[in-house]
Design brief:
The chain has 214 residues and is α/β, with parallel strands linked by helices. It has 8 helices and 5 strands, in the order βαβαααβαβααβα. It has one domain: P-loop containing nucleotide triphosphate hydrolases (Rossmann fold). Strands 2-3-1-4-5 form a 5-stranded parallel β-sheet, sandwiched between helices. The two termini are 13 Å apart.
Length: 214
């Protein structure tokens, strides 16, 4: 089954689930672009934002509001986040949104995180995947990656990053991070090898986009 000229696979993931690695495997197998941290660099370059500031605020909810009022409600007044629009967290999100739309219009690609599924919600040929795994399975992967020295540290790290990602996603969208209804396909990475999961995702994408083009 042939894929369309332009399509996007978005991948949300719990920390330590291997979602980023799966995304890379999918992109490499299909011969298409892969964007995660690279997306931040490109967005910062195009918008003239400080690269370090962008990376430090990656997938983080603006702290001034404490998550009470979601960004997705619509417009907001200048300086809403306690900083000039050109320098606050909202400017980072806008830069990412703009660049993600540019990517979707120019090339097939895999985008990891950054609420890309929501940003591209009105476009055709977008398939949204969420990769998760039980906490201990994620913690063990974190230890294997050398990011934690023991299971307790790895669990704490996973919980912290998951909380941060959930706050970011829930703040900027009208959906819930990790909820099955927010995605097209949710997969437990502890149930199969990552390369097998990548093959499964590619097969699903081909079936899904073939069905949507009829």
């Amino acid at each position: 089954m042939n894929l369309p000229e332009r399509y996007v696979i978005t991948i949300g993931r719990t920390f330590g689930s291997g979602g980023r690695a799966v995304g890379r495997l999918v992109a490499d197998a299909l011969g298409i672009g892969f964007y995660d941290k690279k997306l931040l660099v490109k967005a910062a370059e195009k918008s003239g934002l400080n690269h370090q500031f962008v990376c430090e605020n990656d997938e983080r909810m603006p702290r001034m509001l404490g998550g009470i009022i979601p960004f997705s409600i619509g417009s907001y007044p200048s300086g809403w986040f306690g900083a000039a629009p050109s320098s606050g967290p909202d400017s980072i999100y806008k830069a990412q949104c703009d660049f993600i739309h540019e990517l979707a219009a120019s090339e097939p690609c895999v985008i990891v995180g950054r609420s890309a599924d929501y940003i591209l919600r009105d476009l055709p040929n977008v398939v949204n995947i969420f990769v998760h795994a039980p906490l201990d399975a994620c913690a063990e992967r974190v230890i294997r990656r050398g990011e934690a020295s023991d299971i307790d540290e790895a669990r704490a790290m996973a919980n912290s990053f998951n909380k941060m990602r959930a706050e970011f996603y829930n703040f900027y969208t009208d959906k819930r991070w990790g909820a099955a209804c927010s995605y097209d396909l949710c997969l437990d990475s502890s149930q199969m090898p990552l390369d097998t999961m990548a093959e499964f995702i590619i097969h699903y994408v081909r079936l899904r986009l073939a069905s949507s083009s009829r």
